[in-house]
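Anyone up for a design puzzle?
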């Protein structure tokens, strides 16, 4: 008698598209923040309006990444690694950029 091998397929959990989007936006926000900081440092803090516009766009991308990560938590049967990392990165960058803008207004 020949025994057949059992074939198992694990279905159900998938990677959330919103979670992956949130994580990738978080990485893009970090890269953008450090790029803007380096360019501003090279110009001795006298950046032009283009750097400010890129900074505002970075802030808005961080907000969108945070909301996309939050939205992905409402999906069922997903892996939670990307949404957790996306919310963490975007949340930290959101707070950092907001504090930086408040300091820029006050000072």
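Challenge accepted. My sequence:
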């Amino acid at each position: 008698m020949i025994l057949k091998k059992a074939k198992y397929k694990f279905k159900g959990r998938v990677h959330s598209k919103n979670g992956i989007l949130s994580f990738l936006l978080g990485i893009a926000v970090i890269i953008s923040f450090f790029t803007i900081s380096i360019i501003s440092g090279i110009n001795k803090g006298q950046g032009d309006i283009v750097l400010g516009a890129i900074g505002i766009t970075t802030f808005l991308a961080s907000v969108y990444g945070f909301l996309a990560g939050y939205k992905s938590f409402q999906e069922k049967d997903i892996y939670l690694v990307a949404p957790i990392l996306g919310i963490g990165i975007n949340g930290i960058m959101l707070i950092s950029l907001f504090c930086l803008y408040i300091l820029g207004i006050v000072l």
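A detail worth pointing out: The mean pLDDT is 89.
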